[in-house]
Structure formats: structure tokens, C-alpha cells
Design brief:
The protein has about 220 residues and is an alpha+beta fold. Helices cover about 55% and strands about 10% of the residues. α5 packs across α6. The radius of gyration is 17 Å and the shape is globular.
């Protein structure tokens, strides 16, 4: 079976687009079952656990409201082509994503078959509903909607479980030279950086499967 490792952050719009393009590539794949594994990468690890005011964050990151508007319009146009309808104006907080990554890592241990849906729901909640995905109550609610036990999810999130593992995973990513996301790695042999089109991802899948067979 094909194994896909995805390095991403739940507040990265290009990661959401990349996830949808990966879904399209997997749907068009003629092979057997694929396993998708999600790995953490915090784009903004210095943001406080309570988050930051979104508008100020964007103005500082992009250099003013005009640049922010141009960037968001480009993302909106690209998103529509993948079935993603960004609602940037609904987002009020720029969250710290450590707890979201802890939730994803936990989900892959308890019910890995549901993790892909959880990731989709986290992206959708943030980018189309403006939900603060740094808020523990909201994260537990999204876990429940994704088929997990919301009470167990909240118990995890109110503890510090998994924090050290997330930090270690991010150190490994940086040590391997990962500086941006999304990053897709197929069968641990072929890597594709960025939200590439489904055709590019399908070609990488084929290359990785040939490399696996002929190794």
C-alpha cells in the first residue's frame, strides 16, 4: 500500500489546498489502499497559547492591509478551484496550533482511520467558519464531530500529553531541511514541496511505487 507522509499546519491555507489536491490525486489513483500520516509543523510557534489578534498579525506578516488583501484574493481564487471557499473575514484570532497538532497525533493513535476527516474538519472550521482552533473547547467539539470521543479529547488537551513528541517531530523536520509546508512524502522516497496540483502528486505516487518495487 502507498504511504503518504504530510507535513502541515492547520492554519496554513496552502496546506488546506494541498490536502484537497492530495485527496483528488488519491481518488484518481488506480492502485490499492493508501495510508496518510500527518506530521506537525508550527508556522507560528511564538504566538501565545491564547492566540493573537488576526488583523494585526497579518499586517505585520505581509506589510500592510493592501498586501494582505492581494494575498487573500489569490488564495480565494485558487481555493475555489479545489472546492475550498475561504472566509478570511470571519477569522478573528491567529491561534497557536500546538494543541491542534497534539489532537491530530492522538487521533492517529486511537482511531487512525478517522484522522483524515479530523484534519479536514480542522481546516474547514478555521478557514470557512472562523473557529479558533487554538481553543480547547472548540478542538474537543471538532474531535467529537469527527467521530472521536470528545470527552477523551478534552482530557488530552487539558493535560500536557504529547507536547514533547510534537516538539521532537518539529525538530526532526527542521533538521531535515523543512522550512515550509505543505510537504508530501510518498513511500519515504519521493518528496513534493508545496500545494502542487493533483497531477504532480499522482506522478510522485507512481515514482515512489516504482522505486519501492525495484529497490
Amino acid at each position: 500500500p502507498l504511504v503518504v507522509d504530510v507535513v502541515s499546519d492547520v492554519v496554513c491555507p496552502w496546506c488546506y489546498i494541498g490536502k484537497r489536491r492530495l485527496d483528488a490525486a488519491l481518488a484518481a489513483r488506480a492502485g490499492g489502499k493508501a495510508t496518510v500520516r500527518w506530521h506537525p509543523f508550527q508556522l507560528n510557534p511564538d504566538i501565545p497559547r491564547g492566540g493573537a489578534e488576526r488583523r494585526s498579525y497579518l499586517d505585520q506578516k505581509f506589510g500592510g492591509p493592501e498586501r494582505v488583501r492581494e494575498t487573500q484574493e489569490r488564495l480565494e481564487a485558487t481555493g475555489r478551484d479545489t472546492g475550498v471557499w475561504f472566509e478570511f473575514e470571519r477569522i478573528e484570532r491567529q491561534p497557536n496550533t500546538l494543541d491542534a497538532h497534539r489532537l491530530i497525533a492522538w487521533s492517529q493513535k486511537v482511531r487512525p482511520a478517522l484522522t483524515h476527516d479530523l484534519v479536514e474538519n480542522l481546516f474547514r472550521a478555521y478557514f470557512t467558519q472562523g473557529v479558533d482552533v487554538g481553543n480547547i473547547e472548540e478542538l474537543a467539539r471538532i474531535a467529537g464531530l469527527s467521530g472521536f470521543d470528545a470527552f477523551r479529547a478534552k482530557a488530552l488537551l487539558t493535560s500536557d500529553e504529547g507536547s514533547a513528541a510534537i516538539a521532537a517531530a518539529e525538530r526532526r523536520a527542521h533538521a531535515l531541511g523543512v522550512t515550509g509546508v505543505p510537504l508530501f512524502i510518498f513511500n519515504q522516497r519521493v518528496a513534493v514541496s508545496g500545494a502542487q496540483h493533483a497531477k504532480v502528486l499522482r506522478e510522485a505516487m507512481t515514482q515512489s511505487e516504482v522505486a519501492t518495487i525495484t529497490r
